[in-house]
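Here comes just one.
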Amino acid sequence: MKLQYLSDASGKCPLIRLFDFNTDEAALLLCSLEALASKTTDSLLINELPFITTLENVALTAMIDERPRNPDSEFSIVEGPQSTPLIWRANLQEWRRICDSIRPFVIECRPDRYAWLTDDLGTQVLISPSGTW
């Protein structure tokens, strides 16, 4: 599974892509993110997962953030300190929804299938076997 940050995807907003993966890797990602959804862990270094290949040395930390957010102005993806440039924050309910969006890829990785894992106006997170949407 490849992880890539595109600062000017489709001319609209930045994009983080999780792509070029099979059902086994989708299952590993799901299992990793379920640890957040079940509050087994508070944060996860996605770029350091053994099945992830990063492009352009992108670093992405996923974390639980239960603080209320306005999705129009307080986005899921924020820039962190230099050691962790991108932080993907979501509350437990959002992590459960993200996990539900990944589940179909565990069953079948069709090249025409994709899912948006964020639903605000900021940087988007895309999961797509082919990398397209």
Notes: The chain has a mean pLDDT of 89. The radius of gyration is 14 Å.
